[in-house]
């Protein structure tokens, strides 16, 4: 393919709707979300236009601190703090196991998103800020918001709205975000290594290197200068000023999860059966293709992301710190 950074950058900007070249991609959740709830919140945060993953995460942190067994003095239950009467009418079977369980985050988190969407519809004609009215309705009920023509004059509700709004708008806990320019640089750096031999344990931030012994099938990279899969990723993103961990599993842990329907160039494509069992990673370049260092005996190349059957996840590198390597 031989794509240049300029060409890739132009394609990324066009795909993003002609956004500025320095626009950040894939901001992380602003609240400190436990890893086991991130995908649930990302998915449920798309239930309706009025709800975002950040808003939902901020609500759950405010309601319960992400504690699934929490019970309030008033009797509100679970991670989303549903009153039993509200759960009875609004709780859903989010995980499809045949039960609606307020104590199960796989049910409660989607239910919270749906309930937010429902109350947003009920108060849509109330004057004032639509998001504030929706949050107030979640806390005090839609009737109170309609009665007072906006956020009710209750100290608890007013503080609730202010707290969630501030938390939802808080910058991501990570100190850096990946820009389209950095993505273009990383892809171009990997593209320049097309044809470089695979070397088990080979490659680092400085470029190709001899590897080590031995791969699971006994192949040694000790006498081969080149890259293994994660070594190529480390090098490509180092050229963009982004430091990533060395192994594919650690790179997965350091990336923000991305729904496969929202994959973008520069995202990392991970293969395996579990977070601990990830054995391969490639850099997505668009049109269903990735750049990868595939396996012993082959060289860095472009491949369809479907070329391996155990595609596990897609992640977006979000640097802890943007810096020169």
What's the structural blueprint in terms of helices and strands?
Blueprint lengths: L4 H11 L8 E2 L9 H10 L8 H12 L19 H7 L14 H18 L7 H11 L1 H7 L6 H14 L9 E2 H12 L17 E2 L14 E2 L2 H11 L8 H6 L1 E4 L9 E4 L8 E7 L2 E4 L8 E4 L6 E7 L8
Antiparallel strand pairs: 1-2, 3-4, 5-10, 6-7, 6-10, 7-8, 8-9
Helix pairs in contact: 1-9, 2-3, 2-5, 3-8, 5-6, 6-7, 6-8, 9-10
Description:
The chain is built from eleven helices and ten strands. The chain is of the alpha+beta class and 325 residues long. The protein folds into two domains: 5-25 and 175-317, Alpha-Beta Complex (endopeptidase fold (from Nostoc punctiforme)), CATH 3.90.1720; 35-168, Lysozyme (Orthogonal Bundle). The strands form three sheets. It has a six-stranded antiparallel beta sheet. A two-stranded antiparallel ribbon has the order 1-2. Residues 1-7, 13-28 and 321-325 have low confidence and may be disordered.
- Write down the domain tally: 2
Count of DSSP H/I helices:
11
Uncertain ranges: 1-7, 13-28, 321-325
CATH architecture heading of the largest domain: Alpha-Beta Complex
Largest sheet: 6 strands, antiparallel
Strand content: 5-15%
- The average pLDDT is 86
Top CATH class of the largest domain:
Alpha Beta
Shape: elongated
* Share of helical residues: 25-40%
Distance between the termini: 27 Å
Strands ordered across the widest β-sheet: 5-10-6-7-8-9
Determine the CATH superfamily of the largest domain.
endopeptidase domain like (from Nostoc punctiforme)
Note the run of SSEs as H and E.
HEHHHHHHHEHEEHHEEEEEE
What radius of gyration results from the CA coordinates? 23 Å
Q: How is the CATH topology of the largest domain named?
A: endopeptidase fold (from Nostoc punctiforme)
Oligomer: single chain
Structural class: alpha+beta
Number of strands: 10
